[in-house]
User: Which sequence fits this backbone?
């Protein structure tokens, strides 16, 4: 039985997000003026919250979960670095580099300002027909591929990952940016003071939502995000900090750390992700202060669609089930567990056609046209 309505929960989440987050983008945990939140020995036990002295009490109300959720975001930032503040939210300055029509869609190659001294390359794709009403919009995040944004845009790469093109054909406005180090994006996040490429990606993608909300034909409240692999976890990461995202689609994007290559999380610690997992926590799962069951639950009560194939060698399916089973307890507490949808196709690390179509149907249901 739900404790509060979905509308009340979303309103509450927006209010929480309006609260200033931790410090500066290059801050370390020692720089924060507030004490560190208590640690949790089990990241898949979410109906527990700890007081500053370590005393545990049950999570029985949304207000209890608010405290645990704040701990989760703080622990994530202790690894990835703090979310930038308003000092980096400069005017967007959207420049169009080229424009053409392809497959009945208008493609605009743009650059937008993420922060002082940095601009993000992206594709903006839309149907040319003028909409009767404003359209929903999708942030479309690419996998680990040298061509970056070109793959979801349908300009190369794997056909099963052309979701920006396919969503634009269905009437969504699609924005596909390059993650740092991919496609045309050559920005070094560390030279800008970030502690991780992950946090720089979060900031760039949040600014991408600013781009979408600035467009006359976009419904500013009907925003979603979709991604596969690298894009699958980046979809989760940006949604953690940006409640404007009402619907999240993550394909082959995560599992619980103990199930990730038998607990060897070195793959998460290189310069493209979060180096502090190694430098500060020595890749020790007993010390790393967050895990994906918590991150997934922290997205509630919004709508989440997960594609988790049975034979994904990167993200073993049993670790995905650990995440979804834990997160479902929070969806039941503050939202509706029907908003947490997981499919397990008989496939490898892929986003097959049937699961993409299911994801698009999910987005059409959740992102209602005004």
Assistant:
């Amino acid at each position: 039985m739900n404790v509060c309505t979905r509308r009340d929960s979303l309103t509450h989440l927006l209010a929480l997000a309006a609260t200033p987050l931790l410090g500066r983008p290059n801050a370390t945990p020692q720089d924060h003026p507030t004490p560190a939140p208590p640690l949790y020995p089990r990241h898949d036990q979410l109906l527990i919250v700890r007081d500053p002295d370590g005393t545990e009490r049950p999570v029985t109300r949304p207000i209890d979960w608010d405290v645990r959720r704040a701990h989760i975001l703080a622990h994530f930032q202790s690894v990835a670095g703090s979310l930038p503040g308003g000092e980096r939210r400069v005017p967007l300055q959207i420049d169009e580099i080229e424009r053409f029509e392809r497959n009945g869609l208008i493609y605009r190659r743009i650059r937008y300002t993420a922060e002082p001294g940095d601009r993000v390359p992206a594709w903006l794709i839309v149907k040319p027909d003028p909409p009767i009403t404003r359209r929903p919009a999708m942030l479309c995040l690419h996998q680990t591929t040298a061509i970056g944004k070109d793959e979801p845009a349908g300009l190369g790469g794997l056909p099963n990952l052309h979701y920006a093109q396919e969503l634009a054909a269905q009437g969504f406005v699609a924005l596909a940016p390059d993650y740092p180090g991919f496609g045309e994006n050559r920005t070094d996040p560390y030279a800008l003071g970030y502690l991780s490429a992950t946090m720089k990606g979060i900031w760039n993608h949040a600014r991408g939502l600013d781009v979408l909300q600035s467009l006359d034909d976009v419904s500013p409240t009907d925003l979603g995000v979709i991604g596969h692999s690298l894009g699958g976890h980046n979809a989760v990461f940006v949604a953690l900090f940006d409640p404007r995202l009402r619907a999240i689609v993550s394909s082959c994007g995560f599992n619980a750390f103990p199930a990730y290559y038998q607990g060897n999380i070195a793959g998460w610690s290189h310069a493209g992700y979060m180096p502090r997992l190694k430098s500060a926590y020595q890749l020790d799962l007993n010390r790393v202060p967050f895990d994906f069951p918590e991150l997934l639950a922290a997205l509630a009560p919004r709508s989440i669609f997960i594609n988790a194939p049975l034979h994904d060698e990167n993200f073993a399916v049993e670790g995905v089930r650990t995440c979804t089973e834990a997160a479902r307890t929070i969806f039941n507490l503050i939202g509706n567990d029907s908003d947490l949808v997981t499919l397990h196709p008989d496939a490898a690390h892929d986003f097959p056609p049937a699961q993409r179509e299911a994801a698009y149907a999910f987005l059409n249901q959740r992102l209602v046209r005004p």
About this structure: Residues 1-33 have pLDDT under 50 and may be disordered. The radius of gyration is 19 Å. The first strand starts at residue 48 and ends at 50. The first helix runs from residue 6 to 17.
